[in-house]
UniProtKB/TrEMBL annotation:
Keyword flag Lyase: yes
Species of provenance: Ananas comosus
Signal peptide positions (record): none
UniProt-recorded name of the protein: uroporphyrinogen decarboxylase
The protein's annotated pathway: Porphyrin-containing compound metabolism; protoporphyrin-IX biosynthesis; coproporphyrinogen-III from 5-aminolevulinate: step 4/4
Residues that span the membrane, as ranges: none
Entry's Gene Ontology BP terms: chlorophyll biosynthetic process; protoporphyrinogen IX biosynthetic process
Molecular function as annotated in GO: uroporphyrinogen decarboxylase activity
Function: Catalyzes the decarboxylation of four acetate groups of uroporphyrinogen-III to yield coproporphyrinogen-III.
Family annotation (Gene3D superfamilies): 3.20.20.210
Length: 338
């Protein structure tokens, strides 16, 4: 479940009161391990996702940042001109040992009982923060750079690509068994621009990781990806995450059966009556088909989501039996035909 650990859990809220700094929580081994394990202990999902952030590796490449409770991430020295590129350097994995150590501990803790997932941000998405100096709702500085300073933007994206590939390999070598790439803001680009400014860099990452870690599955998620599905398939990843605005049956038709899909229950449905959530899980699983589907939300768990609903999500998932579910599906189709 995306954003499996975190703000909706009372155990997390209590821990956050003692450790109010997000950077401390996401960069201290003991806290990372504890927060990561909270939902696993509570709900026993099939996947355990390290508690971290897509911006975590930035200081290790020469881009310091702070996190403000009011404004989110703040980068005091954004990269917008050629001279700013001089501040960047190859990723220093020594500065990310807290991630490696956390993954090693987590792998020992969960054993073979669940898969351990790591994750990264895609180059375009990370670049939006580095260029804009933080979060943005318009992306106008970085979009303008596509035309006014394309050589600077391409140099930044290339640097991030190498760093992110190295960071993924580091996570895998530390114990991650699957990696998810979040191109969270790729959906802010028109499809033809995503093809130019995001896809080639994701492809390079996938290629580099395949050479070093051929056995590790890679998932790609883009928020607002309805217009990008076929293009996403061309990145070479193993699984494509669908957000909740894409009809799962339509997504499966467009992608075919030779690639995995992930998703895509609407996170807001966890606020609905539990029978409604049950019906939606059944609908999504039926639409995804018998093979190659990772049941998940279509985006992150929302703040104030009832823990009872999260528990129900996992209980329903564990109780599913494909033979029964798809037999019901056949019966429904016959009734419709009759």
């Amino acid at each position: 479940m995306m954003r499996q650990a975190g703000r909706y859990m009372s155990a997390y809220q209590k821990l956050a009161e003692k450790h109010p700094s997000f950077r401390e929580r996401s960069e201290t081994v003991d806290l990372i391990v504890e927060i990561t394990l909270q939902p696993w202990r509570a709900f026993k999902p099939d996947g355990v996702i390290i508690f971290s952030d897509i911006l975590t590796p930035l200081p290790a490449i020469g881009v310091p940042f702070e996190i403000s409770d009011a404004k989110g991430p703040i980068i005091q020295s954004p990269v917008q001109f050629e001279e700013h590129l001089e501040n960047l350097h190859p990723i220093d994995l020594e500065k990310l040992q807290f991630v490696g150590e956390s993954l090693r501990i987590l792998r020992r803790e969960i054993g073979e009982n669940a898969a351990l997932l790591g994750f990264v941000g895609a180059p375009w998405t990370i670049a939006t923060y580095v260029v804009e100096g933080g979060t943005t709702s318009t992306y106008k500085t970085i979009k303008r750079m596509c035309y006014t300073a394309p050589h600077v933007l391409r140099a930044l994206l290339s640097h991030l690509t190498k760093a992110i590939a190295d960071y993924i390999i580091f996570q895998v070598n530390s114990g991650a068994q699957c990696i998810q790439i979040f191109d969270s803001w790729g959906g802010q680009l028109p499809p033809h621009l995503w093809e130019d400014w995001s896809k080639p860099y994701i492809k390079q990452i996938v290629s580099a990781v395949r050479k070093q870690c051929p056995q590790v599955p890679i998932v790609l998620y883009i928020n607002g990806n309805g217009g990008l599905l076929e293009r996403m398939k061309g990145t070479g990843v193993d699984v494509i995450g669908l957000d909740w605005t894409v009809d799962m049956a339509d997504g499966r038709r467009r992608l075919g059966n030779d690639i995995g899909v992930q998703g895509n229950v609407d996170p807001a449905l966890l606020f609905s009556p539990l029978p409604v959530l049950t019906d939606e899980i059944h609908r999504v699983v039926k639409a995804a088909g018998r093979r190659g589907h990772i049941l998940n939300l279509g985006h992150g768990v929302l703040v104030q989501t009832p823990e009872e609903a999260v528990a129900h999500f996992f209980e329903v998932a564990r109780g599913l039996r494909y033979d029964t579910l798809f037999e019901d599906c056949k019966s429904e189709q016959l009734e419709t035909v009759g």
